[in-house]
Design goal:
single chain; alpha+beta; two-stranded antiparallel ribbon
Length: 150
């Protein structure tokens, strides 16, 4: 799925709606990203409901996903329809990629579910997305470079 965020696009893998993983993740984050409706979050021992809400506030906005191509602005000469068509063509040309069982991991300042073991197939898919869609990525502007370097 290509998703728009503040005029930027990203390519994500997300579980199909109404699957056990989707249901679990949406409940944990407190929002159904497809409908936009809030969901009751589970109780977490040692945390108040407000603390759970605060710790899931950012991911609640964009939903449970795996990033395949980090956010980028569209390059000149491309529009969202061209990106969508390229993504659809890419997805149809690929066999499904099995993901190893997931585990919790600390990634920077947040906790994420990540594959429990290295998967050459998953790494190849991610690499193919980064390189295969790079033509759609506009070069970083001065403000973006400054923000990244900070």
């Amino acid at each position: 799925m290509a998703k728009v965020m503040n005029g930027r696009y990203a390519i994500y893998a997300a579980p199909q709606p109404d699957t056990p993983l989707s249901t679990f993740a949406n409940s944990w984050l407190g929002r159904d990203p497809d409908s936009g409706l809030p969901l009751q979050q589970p109780s977490v021992s040692g945390l108040t409901p407000g603390q759970v809400q605060a710790r899931t506030a950012d991911p609640r906005l964009y939903g449970f996903h795996a990033t395949l191509k980090p956010p980028f602005r569209l390059a000149k000469g491309y529009d969202p329809a061209a990106l969508d068509l390229a993504l659809e063509t890419f997805a149809r040309s690929r066999a499904p990629v099995p993901v190893p069982p997931l585990r919790l991991a600390q990634l920077g300042n947040f906790i994420a579910l990540v594959p429990g073991e290295v998967s050459d197939a998953v790494q190849a898919l991610a690499a193919d997305c980064v390189t295969g869609f790079d033509r759609f990525r506009a070069p970083a502007d001065v403000a973006e470079l400054a923000r990244r370097r900070a």
